[in-house]
Specification:
eleven-stranded mixed beta sheet, binds 2-OXO-4-methylpentanoic acid, six-stranded mixed barrel, about 350 residues, 8 helices, about 30% strand, D-amino Acid Aminotransferase, Chain A, domain 2, D-amino Acid Aminotransferase, Chain A, domain 1, about 25% helix
């Protein structure tokens, strides 16, 4: 267990907010940050004073280990505003639990949960004017930890920064996406880091995704690294398949991320009486279901995109179009999730957390 020198949050406020420079109707995802950020350094074996300070560039040595060995983890979460200007988080305990799991896998010291929660609530509360009301609008919260010790020896850093940035965002994808099923590249491998949010998992997707984009697809459906036989994730999201009226998703494993949206959808499906199967699904089974007409929907699920409907998938030079179903599970889960996140409905699951 890691100690912290002081739990008392130190706060430095901006003198002038930059909120008036922002065009909230034309945001590029994650490009604009709020006035404040959270920062806490790890050195001499413990986390130092947790600090909220004005957002801005920071000094970091080019010799810092993060630049050489990618010792970095992150999280994605959101804050939402309801019609009464009250602000809510969605299952934040899941994110701190997961970033600590990611940190452990990347040999980064875990961050104290109570300090994280206090910092998060204070930071979101301080910059809550940056959260726009209305569906699709939210504040994307980006906790991350990076290795800051100077040195290019290939060994874990003795110094780190744990930070939280906040970016006002609109919807991640504007419409349904076309995906290509991976035949060669993989996002993760057994025994690797696919189950955690290691920064490099995402960087390694850019090249194969760019190749898929050249062919007219926006994202890749990742398959297992051994045989490219099993359907595992879609782009940066978990992936769901609806065959007849059964909802199928891959089991979490050391290759597959335990997504918060994924697990919420599974729980909502059970609550709605929808049959679910958490099992491996092969590409062959998918193509067969498409031929039989029993494949009704494919959608991705993640914090940034919420639920992202897939309109087409490509495999071995053939493009398959998904039918347009009237009783779409994707639309229904998206609505239920957003109603819950934006405080428009009861929360039978206890997932919504108000920021006071
Ligand atoms: C998220 O959904 O928060 C993600 O991890 C996607 C992110 C890479 C934009």
């Amino acid at each position: 267990m890691n100690t912290i020198t002081t739990k008392k949050l130190h706060i430095e406020r901006v003198t002038t907010s930059s909120i008036h420079e922002v065009d909230f109707t034309n945001l590029v995802f994650g490009k604009t940050f709020t006035d404040h950020m959270f920062e806490c350094d790890f050195k001499d074996g413990s986390w130092q004073t947790p600090t909220i300070k004005p957002y801005g560039p920071m000094m970091i040595s080019p010799g810092a280990k993060v630049f050489h060995y990618g010792q970095a983890v992150f999280e994605g979460m959101k804050a939402y505003k309801d019609d009464n200007d009250d602000v809510f988080l969605f299952r934040p305990e899941q994110n701190i639990e997961r970033i600590n799991k990611s940190s452990m896998r990347m040999a980064i010291p875990e961050f104290p949960v109570d300090v994280f929660m206090d910092a998060l609530h204070t930071l979101v509360g301080m910059d809550k004017d940056w959260i726009q009301k209305g569906e699709g609008n939210s504040l994307y919260l980006r906790p991350f930890a990076v290795a800051t010790e100077v040195g290019v020896s290939a060994s874990p850093s003795n110094e780190y920064k744990f930070m939280i940035l906040m970016a006002p965002v609109q919807a991640y994808y504007k419409g349904a996406v076309k995906v290509l099923i991976a035949e060669k590249f993989s996002r993760s491998a057994s025994g690797g880091v696919g189950a955690v949010k290691a920064a490099g998992n995402y960087g390694a997707q850019f090249y194969p995704t760019a190749l898929a984009q050249e062919k007219g697809f926006q994202q890749i459906i990742w398959t297992d690294s051994d045989e490219h036989k099993y359907l595992e994730e879609a782009g940066t999201m978990n992936v769901f398949f609806r065959i007849n009226d059964t909802l199928i998703t891959a089991p979490v494993s050391d290759r597959i991320l335990d997504g918060v949206t994924r697990k919420s959808i599974l729980e909502m499906a059970k609550f709605n009486g929808i049959q679910t199967q958490v099992r491996k699904l092969t590409v062959e089974e998918l193509i067969e279901a498409e031929k039989q007409g029993s494949l009704k929907e494919i959608f991705g699920a993640g914090t940034a995109a919420v639920v992202s409907l897939i309109s087409h998938f490509g495999y071995k030079d053939k493009v398959y179009e998904l039918p347009k179903v009237e009783d779409s599970y994707a639309s229904s889960f998206k609505k239920q999730l957003m109603d819950l996140q934006y405080n428009k409905t009861q929360d039978p699951f206890g997932w919504r957390v108000e920021v006071k």
